[in-house]
Amino acid sequence: MLSRAAGEWGIHSFYICRKGIKRMENSGPENAHVLDNPIWNALQTGNRGMAQGSTQAAYFNAAIAPFAGMPQLSEEGWLQLQAADRPEGDVFILFSTAAIAVPQPWKVLAQLPLYQMVYAHRQAPQVKQGAAMVSLTAQDVPAMLELTRLTNPGPFRNHTIDFGHYYGVKHEGQLVAITGRRLRPLPYHEVSAVCTHPDFLGRGYAAQLIARQVQLILEEGGIPFLHVKDDNTAAVKLYEKLGFETRTAIVCTVLALKA
User: For a FRET experiment, which of 18, 129, 179, 228 has its CA 20 to 30 Å from that of 238?
Assistant: First the structure.
């Protein structure tokens, strides 16, 4: 498990895992797939309007998400990331196809093995429509924060909703399931924040919400993809049932500046 401090940034559902992860000292763009470096490529294309940083390191506003990327790991990139205007003690999260070497004064809080899954079909999955889905707005953020803290789908902050396309299911006014989008390394659109309140599991809400996201992404001419912890067997099985296929393994590195 992560330290208590790490959990304060919405990453407390992850675990520290280094065994079996190969280390990458540097990475280059040669022959790389756009999804091999999804955060950087999203900040250069579909999420460009949210990008902060420079040509060597880019990131989202801290209130939106802790994700950051570089075109390739470099001394200049690390220095520019270090100079980012962030709240004291905040973390950055980087995605890569292998474990990265982190220079001083950075410290690794966790390196987390994920699967990156892609939906390669032209039609959205057909699922039972058992509940009314509602579009979520800023008024729903407190309930979204409460649900994501309870279920731990990954980082979710006060302005994560700015990514847009969030839908949910409510039961007697209570928000019990949500799904949204996050990274957009075009033409790919990431389905994210998939979570259901524990008291409402087994009702097909996640499948219904994911199918809705897939349908909307396909209508926009995009390709759906997502990330999932490699030990989350139930989620992987659901995504496979809906038509997603594992493309590659991804390492999620959670890091912070040393105090």
Answer: 18
Contact 220, 187 (CB under 8 A): no
Nearest partner of 82 among 62, 110, 61, 53, judged by Cα: 53
* Three-state SS at 245: strand
Nearest-CA neighbor of 124 among 223, 55, 199?
223
Quote the number of domains for the chain: 2
Q: Please say whether the beta carbons of 92 and 66 come within 8 A.
A: yes
Determine contact, residues 225/114, Cβ cutoff 8 Å: no
Residues 181 and 231 in one domain: yes
Q: Looking at the structure, do residues 123 and 109 belong to the same domain, yes or no?
A: no
**Which CATH number does the domain housing residue 239 bear?**
3.40.630.30
Is pLDDT larger for residue 15 or for residue 143? 143
Query: Residue holding tokens 């208590």?
Result: 4
Are residues 14 and 252 in contact, defined by beta-carbon separation less than 8 angstroms? yes
Tokens of 198: 């524990």
Asked if 59 and 92 touch (Cβ cutoff 8 Å), the reply is yes
Report the C-alpha gap between 235 and 21 in whole angstroms.
22
Exposure pattern of 176-201 as b/e (b: 16+ CB <10 Å)? bbbbbbbbbbbebbbbbbbbbbeeee
The pTM score is: 0.88
pLDDT tens column, 12-50: 333 223 333 333 334 445 568 999 999 999 999 999 999
Tell me 253's DSSP state: E
Paired tokens of 202: 């087994």
